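Per reviewer request, we include the raw input and output of the structure prediction for the construct analysed in the revised manuscript.
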Amino acid sequence: MRASTKTWIGIGAATAAAAVGAAFLIGRHPIGNTSVPEPAKSVHLQRYIGVWFEIARYDQRFERSCAGGVTATYSLGSDGSINVVNRCRRGDGSIKEARGRAKIVDRSTNAKLKVSFFGPFYGDYWVLDHADDYSWSIVGEPSGRYLWILSRRSNLGQAAIEELVSRAQGLGYDTKQLIYTKQP
């Protein structure tokens, strides 16, 4: 993928941008959690794969052109890796898409992965917490600069959103920094 293309780096792959070089370090989100906890639960990959809708996130340069409709779709690759397709709708209505791969780095829990959208450059993707029925997930990584609240449903009621934001706050995140995603 050429650096000049305007592809969306995507949910969970944010730290891959930091690894690419100094240009990606400029404009990064401030640290929203100085003490990111270890993931709370193991992840059953067969239940985690599928489509996730972004409910809220920390502001990131690579998502700024996304006006809404942000999704991440995960599927198992034949080689044991995880295929990632991130999409969002731009302000002009066009779709922005990025494709990547993820690999598990902590096989004891499957909750820590590395995601790449740029060849050999991988960023951390930690499933910090999730519902027992995999209806929601809170994703971050060790620097505390990235946070996503994800759901299997595109639209949640206000009470459900507040509960998930409270859970993220309980994990140590400054939830005042969250941007709420417009979903169709």
